[in-house]
Each structure stands twice: as structure tokens, then as C-alpha cells.
Amino acid sequence: MFSITHEPVPDDALLRTFRGGTHPERWGGYADCYAVGVDRSVSLAEFVFAFYTAPLFRIERGLLQLLINAPSSRSDARAVADGTADKFAAWYVGQRTATQLLMCDRYERTRSWFRVVPRGGGGTDLQFGSAVAARRGLSEIPQRPAAFKVLLSFHVLYSQALLRAAKANL
Questions:
Q1: 101 to each of 49, 59, 111, how far by Cα in Å?
Q2: For residue 66, which phi and psi values (nearest 5 degrees)?
Q3: C-alpha to C-alpha distance for 83 and 8, rounded to whole angstroms
Q4: Angle, CA of 89, 3 and 163, to the nearest 5°
């Protein structure tokens, strides 16, 4: 029912194709994609709103407000989900299509990606992914911070929990 799968990032995903923002050459190193099915039709707006208003994500919203002064509300979540706003908490809309939304953090270090994929029979696959920018070292070869490896296990579990929470919030 709430089984999350890890999938390759689709070739046409905004997470893979969007190169806007500062230092576009730093993107493409790390990206992931998690998916879960829903037994009804779900719009992108419904998915994004459910994600950003799920109880688990509300904790993150609170931390963002305390730590980096990036407040957000339920109405802010509704506005970005519906496409009437281009900022939410610490993110801005990088690109949007009818079925995908790419959110970029204001520091240009991470991206979050949402996608709905209609299935036959009225169901929908919800996809959520993240990308982390590499930084250039002295050799000009993109590198990941040392903490990246340590935090990756947490990130994987947290991403899956967020997707599970969004599904439950639908």
C-alpha cells in the first residue's frame, strides 16, 4: 500500500534537464528518484500540497523558519502547488510543467522534484527526487562535501518518509 521504490531519474525529468540558476555545470552529479502508487487520479497541485503540508514536512518547515528565517504557511504551500506563487520557504520554482515541478533552494545547493504519472485504470504514480550540487575543488573537478556521504543514508530514509507522508496526506 505505501511501498516506496527507488527508480532511476527519468531522462525527461526536470531534475535532470533543468540547468538554470548559478553554476549550471555543477548539476548532474547526484540525483535520486523515489516513487509510490496511488489508486486514484492525483494532480500535481494535489501532490505538492499534500507533500508540503504533511505532518512530517511541517517539522522541516518549522526548522527552516528557526534556523534560516524561511517561514512558510499552509496558504504558501497552496499557492506554490497551484502555480500562483514562485517561492516557498527556502525554495523557488526553477521550472514547472503540467506534471512536474522543480524547486531550487535559495543557496543553489539542492533541488527537489515532484512528478505525477497517470497510470491506466485511474491510478497515479507519485515521484519525488532530489539533486545535490557538486562544488569545484582546486582541480576544477566537481566534488561532494565530506559530510555528503555521512548524510546520504539519512537523506534516503527521509525522502522515502516524506513521500510516504505525502501519500498518507492525500
A1: 12, 22, 10
A2: -70, -45
A3: 27
A4: 5
Walk me through the domains of the chain, giving residue ranges and CATH numbers.
Answer: 5-169 (3.30.530)
pTM, full prediction: 0.90
DSSP string spanning 44-111? HHHHHHHHHHSHHHHHHHHHHHHHH-----HHHHHHHHHTS-SEETTEEEEEE-SSEEEEEETTSSEE
Burial of 143 (0-12, 13-18, 19+ CB in 10 A): middle
Mention every residue, 6+ apart, whose C-beta is less than 8 A from residue 151.
none
Owner of C-alpha cell 491510478:
123
Distance of CA 106 to the CA centre of its chain: 14
Alpha carbon of residue 100 to chain centroid:
10
CB-neighbour burial class of residue 154 (10 A; exposed 0-12, middle 13-18, buried 19+): exposed
Q: What is the per-residue pLDDT across 50-81, written as a single tens digit (0 to 9) for each?
A: 999 999 999 999 999 999 999 999 999 999 99
Beta bridge partners of 32: 130
Q: What is the pLDDT of residues 17-40, one digit of tens each?
A: 887 776 677 666 788 999 999 999
